Structures are given as structure tokens and as C-alpha cells.
Amino acid sequence: MDSLENASTAHPVSEPTKSSGLTTIAAIATPLGRGGVGVIRLSGARAHEIACTLTGKAAFTPRMASFCRFYQADGTVVDEGLVLYFKGPHSFTGEDVIELQGHGGMILQNQLLARVFELGAKQASAGEFSYRAFDNDKLDLVQAEAIADAIDATSAAAASSAIRSLSGEFSQKINQLLEQLIHVRLHVEAAIDFPDEEDVDFLSDGVIQAKLEQTQAKIQQVLATAKQGQLLRDGIHVVLAGRPNAGKSSLLNRLAGQERAIVTDVAGTTRDTLQETVVLNGLTLHLTDTAGLRETEDTVERIGIERARTAITQADMLLMVYDVTRDVEEQSTPLQLAEQLFGELPEAKRLLIIANKSDLLSDVADSNLITASQAEISDRGYDQVNVSCETGIGIDELVEVLCSKVGFHPPENSLIARTRHLDALRRTMGHLTEAHEQLTVFQAGELVAESLRQAQNSLGEITGEFSADDLLGKIFGSFCIGK
Ligand SMILES: Nc1nc2c(ncn2[C@@H]2O[C@H](COP(=O)(O)OP(=O)(O)OP(=O)(O)O)[C@@H](O)[C@H]2O)c(=O)[nH]1
Ligand SMILES: [Mg+2]
What we know:
With 483 residues, the protein is of the alpha/beta class. It contains 16 helices and twelve strands. Strands 3-4-5-2-1-6 form a six-stranded mixed beta sheet. A six-stranded mixed beta sheet has the order 8-9-7-10-11-12, with helices on both faces. The longest helix has 28 residues, at 207-234. The protein has helices at residues 2-9, 47-55, 106-118, 128-135, 141-152, 156-166, 169-193, 207-234, 248-256, 299-314, 334-342, 364-379, 395-405, 419-442, 445-463, 469-477, and strands at 25-28, 38-43, 66-71, 77-86, 97-102, 122-123, 236-242, 274-280, 283-289, 317-323, 351-356, 383-386. Guanosine-5'-triphosphate binds next to helix 9.
């Protein structure tokens, strides 16, 4: 039973960044450049004292804006603006926080920051403000990540779901699951501690099994929501590949809604890979246009084709573009073409076949050919969309098929999630499956308890209840400075 208590109170210790109260950190919190206002933020025990020396004021009232001049050591004025004081623990980080709202010029902001350093503050490292907030229990890990995700969001839907995660909706779901899991654990532990009490065998009376199954069902639901949230956050990497002249660059331009890539009727126009990020139907697509795949003596083109091959291996989704008037004939179906181009036939869930230039299909024989290839493709579980990059026909359908292939259908109130969360939820699910088997097949109470303990640990990683230091370093290190 003691492990249960440890389980819910354990906190990570982080040597490199744990500095709450020890050092006072400062950073420019607004983007550097021309702007009406630029904010420098300080956090730590000396923040208030530094602000007083900087401005010549005796003290600041918490949560009141004070207009001040910011002075250099020799009494000259660096800038003027507002000082805001948030006394810990009622601040973002939980420590004393000062915001200096000066003018938003690069020179001014850097001079003011240098003065703040002269007065004893240290440069904040990436994510250090958020880390301190996490360390002082102002935020859990999911919320801290949601701040970074909201800032980096590439679509409106991703931004609003990050804000929902920041408000604690996702953490709440995880905490409810944790409670449910702890409840099951308590039952199992009790069954082990008091076997056959009043002639009842707790392990086999069905109650624990029912509770366990309810928990599994809940995790499955959260996993489905998180999967959508992860797609919303990260989008997918889509590579356009095919023979030269098939219309890959034309497709990139169609999807991007602008002439990004050079299109000509010369085979081998695209040499280097070219990236463009677009948001279509709410899904962020990181598109890569590639050089047409063929044997060539041209050195530059050959390097381009090598790069195409690298991109192909890294793609979440391959769009094989082919020219319906030329690239396939009766002897070579689109699937055979894919096999030739990629060395082996990619898995169906990773390949979408794009039959391009369908505007050029005039006679019935041609159309029949496409219909026949379509039948073979769908029989084998693959998908093909007929498009014309010239006229735009089929492009909307292409985007729909793409979204459905990756399983993207975000619910109205989706919550942002990361691969790390999905991974933890899947591991939790794995431990629960083990627990279920130990319970129903072997009635091995101790082993059920152990699997449940591991499940709780995996789940606790999401909100940061259990997190290794290196994981924390990685998460906060990817934040921007000043956050
Ligand atoms: N009629 C018609 N022509 C198209 C269509 N899509 C592309 N083309 C033409 O096909 C030629 C090649 O198009 P690109 O987009 O440059 O082809 P690519 O696959 O990028 O070619 P490489 O970069 O050489 O590998 C151009 O002349 C385009 O105008 C289409 O749907 N219909
Ligand atoms: Mg091209």
C-alpha cells in the first residue's frame, strides 16, 4: 500500500534547471523587432529589488501598473514605461515576477536587458519561466506544453485546442483516469491483503474485472481524442513523388494555392526538394515536392533524386503522382509503377495514388483503362484519386481522402496532444491489458497489482507526476526563451 502513496506524490528532481528562488532570471518576452511595446520579464527572489534599483522607486504595489523611467547606473535614462509586479506565489512562475513594459525596439530592449543583468539577474534559458511554473505546481506538464503549442500553432484549430489544454481540460481527463486507476489498485491491494474475507474471493467476484474494463474503455476514448490532438498539432509529412513531368510540382502549387514550384513541360524541371506547409480541412500538411524519379547521367539531377529518395523514406504519406496519358499502360498498372518507383510496394495506409491530367482523357478507351486500374487498386486495399492539376478537378476529393486515410476527423472541442502523450497512453493500455490477463486467466493478484502500478506510472508521465529529468530537459528546452 505504501507504494500507492509514493505513486501519487513523487516529484521529479531536476538538477540543471531547478533554481526556483535561487537565481533571478530575465528575458525579453516579446518578439525582437520594431513594436510599440516590448516586455522584459523577471522572475525570482530579487526581481522586485532589481526593479526598485532600476527605477529609483522604493517599492511597487502588486498588480498595479506604475509608470517609471528606467535608469542606467550613471543616472542616464535607458527607456521609460510601465512596471508590473506580481508577488509570488500569485504569479505565472509562483515566484516574484516583474514585467518591464518599455518600447519595442531592438536596441532599447537589449540595453534594458543588459542593465537588468548588471543589477544581478541572469539570462533565462529556453522554457525556464514555464519550468519554474511547473516546478512550483502552477502548471502541470500538459499545460506547460500547451503554452508552447499555442505559440507554435500552425492552424486556428490547433491554437484553440492548445488553449483548451492550457486551461486544464486535458489534464483533468488524465487526472480522472488516474483516480479511476488508483481506485482499481486499491481494490486489488485489498483483495491481496485480505484474501477470502467473509468467504468472498475479491479477485474472482467480477467487481475488479468490471472496474478494470471500464478503465480500459475510458483510456481507449482518451487515446482516440489524443490521436486527433496529435494530428492537429503536428500535421503530417506528405511527399509528392513520381516520374518526371507527372505533375508533382503542379499539384504542390494547387494545394498551396500559389505558384511555389517551377512548372514546365521539360522533364526533370524540379531538381532539389521543396517544402511548403499548408492547412487544408484543418489538417496541417508539410508538403515536399521532389525531383522526378528516373535513371539519369546528369549529376545535379542525380543528387536531387537521392534527396527525393530520402524524403520518400521519411514520409508519413506518399502521394504517387502519375500522368494518366503516359505513365501507365495495360502492361503496367499504377501499383506496378509504385513498386518500380519505390523499390517495393509501400503499405496501403502510406500510399495515395494520384492519377493526374485526367482532363486529357478524351476517349472512352482511356477512361475504361482508369476504371480498370481503379478496381485493382481498391481490391488490394489501396486508394486512387483522379485529378487534374490543370483544371482543379478532384483536388477537394484528394484532400478528403488524405484526411480520412490518416484518420483525421477532429471533434469540435479537440485537445492538443503530443506523440509523447500518445506513447504514454498506449503503454498504459498495454499494462492494463496485462493486468486484465493476469486477473481473468491466472487470478494472480500480485501480478495484477504490479501491472496496475506500471499503468499508473505511465499515465502519470503525461501530467508530469512521474517524469525523468532528461525528459523534462527535452520538453522545456524546446520552448522559446522568455516563455
Ligand atoms: N493537361 C494537363 N497538364 C498538366 C496537368 N498537370 C501538370 N500538367 C503539365 O505537365 C507538365 C509537367 O508538370 P510539372 O508539375 O512540372 O511536373 P513534375 O512532375 O513536377 O515534373 P518534374 O519536376 O520534371 O519531375 C507541365 O507542362 C504542366 O503544365 C494536368 O492536370 N493537365
Ligand atoms: Mg517538378
